[in-house]
Amino acid sequence: MRLYDPAGNRLYLNAEERATFLAGARRQPARDRTLCETLHFTGCRPSELLEITPARVDLSGGAIAIRSLKKRKDASGAARIVFRTLPVPPDYLDTLNTAHGIREAQKSRKKAAQSIWGISRVWAWKIVKRIMIEAGIPDGPQCSPKVLRHGFGINAAVNGVPLNMLQKWMGHAQLSTTAIYADATGKEEQNIAARMWGLGGIADRLAG
To answer: Which part of the chain is the Tyr recombinase domain (predicted)?
Structure first.
């Protein structure tokens, strides 16, 4: 897993691009908006997003359960199903519930087990790509649905989320995979340095 391609191009959205993308998504019809917001706020893979059902949305607990589609095996070598639960913003959940009738769908076993979006992975990819371009994100390696996942990881690391917690949120089997996000660069690294400088300034004033 890499944050840059062989030519040195970013494979993630930086903080400014994430904000631009989110703003653009919020101008879209409900289905497209919630699809993009879910990728933004959970860092899940597009294929994982399309498996989310109303039954996996905890409106009162403020969280979403996502089934990890990466293969996992138990001690005997048999495949096992792994779910991870992510906390999400309450206003996002309100939008999701209003747009898709989550609370009402949860009252029916059949509806609660159906995919919220009910579209193909290719169609979801086209929706995200279109919104990125409309939002003014340059068309390149960083303009793709999969880079939202990397952007989520870097944003979490920059804001001090412990790596073991981020590992859980992203569904990584190994902490070494998650550690790639601690190696933040560019504007993200500058944000980390700014914190250090700010603390240094305080220490200098106290010393003076």
So the answer is: 8-194
List, in order, residues 6 or more apart from 99 with CB less than 8 Å away.
Answer: 30, 31, 33, 34
Token reading at 89: 């913003």
- Residue 6 domain flag: no
Domain span at residue 45 reads 15-207
Closest CA to 101 of 143, 45, 57, 166: 57
For residue 89, give every residue at least 6 positions away whose Cβ sits within 8 Å of its Cβ, in sequence order, or none.
Answer: 41, 62
CB within 8 A of 94, min separation 6: which ones? none
How confident is the model over 103-151, as pLDDT tens digits?
Answer: 999 999 999 999 999 999 999 999 999 999 999 998 887 788 888 999 8
**Domain total of the chain:** 1
